[in-house]
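User: Hey, quick favor. My workstation is busy. Could you predict this chain's structure for me?
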Amino acid sequence: MNQPADSSATTARVHAAPGDTGDFSVLRYAQCWEDADVLLQALAPPAGGTLVSIASGGDNTFSLLTTAPAKIIAIDISPAQLSCVELKMAAYRELSYEEMLEFFGVAPSDRRMRLYRRIRSSLSKSSRMLWDGMPHAIAKGIIRAGKFDKYVRIFSRFLLPLVHSRKLVRELLRPRSKQERYTFYDRLWDSWRWRGVIRLFFSRFVSARLGRDPSFFDYVEGDVGERALRFARRGLTELDPSVNPYLHWITLDRYLHEVPHALRPESFESIRSNLDRLELRCCSIEDCLAGLPENSVDGFNLSDIFEYTSAESCDESLRTISSAGKPGSRVVYWNTFVPRRRSERLADCLHPLKDLSERLHQCDKVFFYDGLVIEEVL
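Assistant: No problem, here it is.
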């Protein structure tokens, strides 16, 4: 494949982290696995503000573009993640809505490589090198390309069919009242095979090898598989499976009639028109904020970054974040297996919005988080 010159007018601005080796070998997340509808309510960013967002697969940063910010700084320590975001930016910019869904892998398509060739010149040289070397990932749809996304696909394509029939899976996704959902789960779904597969496949041992990096479990205590089983029960009973696009993807490897916020038709033009407000930086949150003035940021989308740090490091980062945030700005992040939130030592700079956090957590469609944390800068 030829290597056209970079197009400076359309290439995302990517700032490399000091000492970065440009290792594109591992793309961990090709999708964002946090509920963007919850994020938008939790962050409540003002129009015309400056936001800092963990890039990950890009989708939730794109959703934040619909709030008409002046600027979003999307950061990630992984160059591969930023190349994923850059590829999606090119698709939003160059393709129609229907073509974008095809290219991403949301809609069926036999022309994804042709679509890739149409948007390829919009990519930086490093991103072209990454995606030129992943033709099979492009052909399958790029939202299946991440390590964690492949892990989820193993579950939907190979393990779940060993536990329940396709007919019963479709029955799971039928609209029901909450009481009917509990009855269905207890009588028909919660078999010994189901419990065994969840405990094993989502155990620390398997997840660390197939889904996440082993270092991500450094601060995890207790039985991961048992907690995964508890999360699954909540997601299939307390929440409504019939309108949950994340559950549809996990069980069917596709969306049904619902899609995440960034993929909805009403979001498309708003995202596309605001792409020039998005700046990509390959760095840590601390390095990013070190270059920003105090009281200059209107909101922080931090994914689950504190899951992988000590309590002391979490406090240090939150202190830095609060200094960069404007009074009244919000800091939003998720906990899965490691309980992290601001300690009492930070009571002078961050105030927890506990009621809002709990209310939004109860309707969070990505059910495998143990908690949502929303804190306000004082």
